[in-house]
Amino acid sequence: MPTILITGANRGLGLEFVRQYAADGWRVLATVRDPLSGKAASDAGAEVYVADVTDPASIQRLHSSLAGVPLDILLNNAGIYGKDQAFGAVDPDGFLAVMRTNALAPLKLAEAFVGQLTGRKIIASVSSLMGSIAENSSGGFYAYRASKAALNMVVKSMALDLAGEGITALALSPGWVRTDMGGPNAPQEPHEAIAGMRAVLAKVTLNDSGKFFHFDGRELPW
Ligand SMILES: NC(=O)c1ccc[n+]([C@@H]2O[C@H](COP(=O)([O-])OP(=O)(O)OC[C@H]3O[C@@H](n4cnc5c(N)ncnc54)[C@H](OP(=O)(O)O)[C@@H]3O)[C@@H](O)[C@H]2O)c1
């Protein structure tokens, strides 16, 4: 049975990833930040663990709990949007909190679990079209855009550093999706975005390492 570790799995895209992978027969290891928020993931068939991805001690505890468990996919999904991001009003602590969650945490999780990757050997990180420098035509949203651009660079470097170990590192864009983060006006339902990203993950090979894929399968420019 293939195994996937999914962060930020109590709601939104993370929970939908849990539902679809569990329904497909995968062993799903799901992390939640609040121990009381794991019921939906657990009801969907996941084994639930507590982890705040910005806290190194919490990642260490998660790593100890999962010692020796082989993982096909590490899926860095947990993320925050942040606030006060307009030019002239950027909050420094808020900016750094977004960077820490969206760019640094996926790297630290990869460092913790790289030795347990087997089978598909994929490190997938949920990025955003808003992190594409090439696609930025409207500006603003400094923290979120910068954090996802930084995540994309982390993915590219991991692809190069880990190629010798046969590990595929890639970034995924879910589109604009109706979750707490995406809001009610987003055009896509979580099930569509997740089905698309799962199709990408099912198809990729080591040759795709270091790439950025939209949920519809298109490769995106950095
Ligand atoms: N929705 C969209 O349109 C969209 C578009 C592009 C990219 N994305 C990306 O997709 C991913 C999931 O987004 P979403 O729409 O599902 O957002 P969401 O509904 O706001 O859910 C975010 C998830 O991340 C978790 N999380 C946040 N900070 C964490 C931390 N420090 N440690 C552990 N977990 C943490 C949250 O846990 P709590 O419940 O404890 O807060 C929650 O489970 C994010 O990386 C986001 O940037 C989303």
CATH class: Alpha Beta
**Main beta sheet strand tally, sense and closure:** 7 strands, parallel
Low-confidence stretches: none
Helix count? 6
Q: How do the helices and strands follow one another from N- to C-terminus?
A: EHEHEHEHEHEHE
Give the overall pLDDT as a whole number: 98
**Helical content band:** 25-40%
The secondary-structure class comes to alpha/beta
Structure description:
The protein is α/β, with parallel strands linked by helices and 222 residues long. The protein has a single domain (3-214), classed as NAD(P)-binding Rossmann-like Domain (Rossmann fold, 3-Layer(aba) Sandwich), CATH 3.40.50. It is built from six helices and seven strands. The chain has helices at 12-23, 39-43, 56-65, 92-113, 142-162, 190-203, and strands at residues 3-6, 27-32, 47-50, 71-76, 117-126, 168-173, 212-214. The chain has a seven-stranded parallel beta sheet, sandwiched between helices. It is globular, with a radius of gyration of 16 Å. The structure holds NADP nicotinamide-adenine-dinucleotide phosphate. NADP nicotinamide-adenine-dinucleotide phosphate (NAP) is lined by residues 7-8, 10-14, 33-34, 37, 51-54, 77-80, 101, 126, 128, 174, 176-177, 179-182, 186.
Short note summarizing the structure:
The chain has helices spanning 12-23, 39-43, 56-65, 92-113, 142-162, 190-203, and strands at 3-6, 27-32, 47-50, 71-76, 117-126, 168-173, 212-214.
What is the topological layout?
Layout: E1 3-6, H1 12-23, E2 27-32, H2 39-43, E3 47-50, H3 56-65, E4 71-76, H4 92-113, E5 117-126, H5 142-162, E6 168-173, H6 190-203, E7 212-214
Parallel strand pairs: 1-2, 1-4, 2-3, 4-5, 5-6, 6-7
Helix pairs in contact: 1-6, 3-4, 4-5
Bound molecules: NADP nicotinamide-adenine-dinucleotide phosphate.
